[in-house]
Amino acid sequence: MSDSKSNSIEHMNCDAPEECLLWLERFECMVAVHDAVLNAPDDAAREDRSKNLLCSLIGPAGYLLLKAYSAPDMPNTKTFDELKAIIRTNLCPKASAVSASYKLSQLRQETSE
Length: 113
Prior knowledge:
- This protein has six helices and no strands.
- By secondary structure, the chain is an all-alpha fold.
- Helix 1 (about 15-35) packs antiparallel against helix 5 (about 80-90) and helix 4 (about 60-70) packs across helix 5 (about 80-90).
- It is elongated.
């Protein structure tokens, strides 16, 4: 018998962009493992159930951001792949080359190094 912790995932931490991709990967693994539970008769139904599962498990802060980035449409009108793209693009932005270059230029070597 499995415990309830193995059937759930914590809400996505929207304050840590580096963790957003990890959360999304873990969510996709959870959907794959629970595919039998989703019991979708076809790919369209599986996608619809995966989308609804994502919207319910992302957490209140994550859903609010997802809703803002989906505007003027509601998140439940988007496809599962579109929602994943919104998360990757807006909640997990890649650092710009200019920003990385600036951080590198600000590094100073200590005398003990």
